[in-house]
Amino acid sequence: MKPADQSLAFCSWSTQPKCPNCLIGSANDIGISRVQLHLNPIFESPEDWADAGKKLGDAGITVVSGMFTPKGEDYSTPATIKQTGGIVPDEHWQANLEAFGKTAEAAKALGLSQVSFHAGFIPEDDKATHDKLVGRLRELGDMLKDTAGADLLLETGQETAESLDRFLAEVDRESIAVNFDPANMILYGMGDPIAAAEKLAPRIRQAHVKDATSPPQPGAWGSEVAVGTGEVNWEAFFKALKAGGYDGNLVIEREAGEDRIGDIKQAAAYVPQFLG
User: Fold this and answer.
1) CA 133 → CA 1, 83, 115, 138, 231, distances in Å?
2) Intervals of the chain under pLDDT 70
């Protein structure tokens, strides 16, 4: 695996920036000059994010990948996101298709090779919906590859590793792969993240660095916590990535807590011990 200074990045949305200069300030505070950039603001708030790529580049910030958020997602509970997540709901499909076209154009303008998102829950017991999701994902993956030459990466967590592996085999696109998030496996109660990383190793093209504790009971959320204080066995996780030949980015994500910048800095200091 690459050393920390060549692999560590952080998710732009973790620091909730309102403009490129805000993100630059966060990067300077954290001490990391590589980011995964939330692309929706580029086309949803162009007055605030005009010339984002140039501004970030001039400040020495490298955008290593992008992220797309589909319309209509409700993360209030695991049950609500199961109904509203990703590109499964028909009511938002056309709007999401249009928004993803703009995402692909943003990825092209920024010269990105990867964009990640949550596709939604894979319905293995509903063939019609399952087949619909396969078709929609192929359409988005082909659009991104044709427009920007980039890969589309599915975030883990909303299904088991075995289910995701079967689904991607059916999608059958080399350009559609996995953004692996070990904490999401715990938050959703979808199995051991180490075993999942081993199962999905050939498909992993980006990894998130995030930690969590398990749901207190079925149907509830687990809790996102600072890296190194949750249930992810980081030594075993990085061993699994290394064994699978992983050599991509390690992107720190923090979506909770009162001191996100401090927690990202803590994660950046914690991770290098496992990369030697």
Assistant:
1) 33, 14, 18, 8, 31
2) none
